[in-house]
Amino acid sequence: MRKITLGNRMKQYEACYDIHILRKLPLIIRIDGRAFHSWTKKSRCSRPFDEPLMKLMAETTRFLCENIEGCVFGYTQSDEISLLLRDDQSHDTYAWFDKRLQKIVSISASMATYYFNANNPYERKLPAFFDSRAFALPLEDVRAYFIWRQNDASKNSLSMLAQSLYSHSELVGKQREALMDMCWQKGHNWDALSTPQKRGCGVLRRPVIVEGKFGPVERQKFVIDEDIPIFSAESCDIFEKLLASNVNVCRTSTVKQ
Q: How do residues 146-183 score in pLDDT, each as one tens digit?
């Protein structure tokens, strides 16, 4: 009978929880700030919308898109970041960490935490922390996922504006139209807010002219889009390109991380 070493026995315990997300399906990573209501208050962020915080969240999203294998799109609103990864455009497209769930959630959360804290613009350098979750979903539901998150962004945006103008008791039970009217009565038109304030920012690849060795050249780079459209089930250029199965937008690699 073959003797099992101590190391092998420990690795067997670990292997029971080394879950792999199914390959060749779109992968969503959602990263959230931990206790950010308290963090923003202690950091003396402006209400209802803090421009430095919104900018930092967008830049953190771009950093993640640039450094996570297979990432094709990022979306951020409030203290939340959603990333879309694809490994299904070709048979040899590499999946980030072979879609090992524990690796994906731990490293994506630590990457967001690192970049956010390293670029904290506030006088009080309080550490911020992020958690992460990841899951696969059918290609036809990717658009629905981002519609859901953007709807949540708009709902939160209106609530934050109203909460900056009225007390909690004055807002209890009020629905969207009533909240918009109440804001209007105080001289604030929610519809007139900037796109990032109302529905967040996107990060996606766009052609950019950069200075090359022999002059200007065009490169595909991740850029922050502060004028994203309203996501809907109807035609939307962003999702038409992201969900096209015949466009190889994922990076490929033969080196295992």
A: 999 999 999 999 999 999 999 999 999 999 999 999 99
pLDDT tens, position by position, 179-213: 999 999 999 999 999 999 999 999 999 988 888 78
Instruction: Report the predicted TM-score, pTM, of the whole model to 2 decimal places.
Output: 0.89
Return the pLDDT at 246: 46
Distance, C-alpha 85 to centroid of its chain: 11
Any idea which fold 17-142+195-242 has? Alpha-Beta Plaits (3.30.70)
Whether residue 30 contacts residue 51, with contact meaning beta carbons closer than 8 Å, is answered with: no
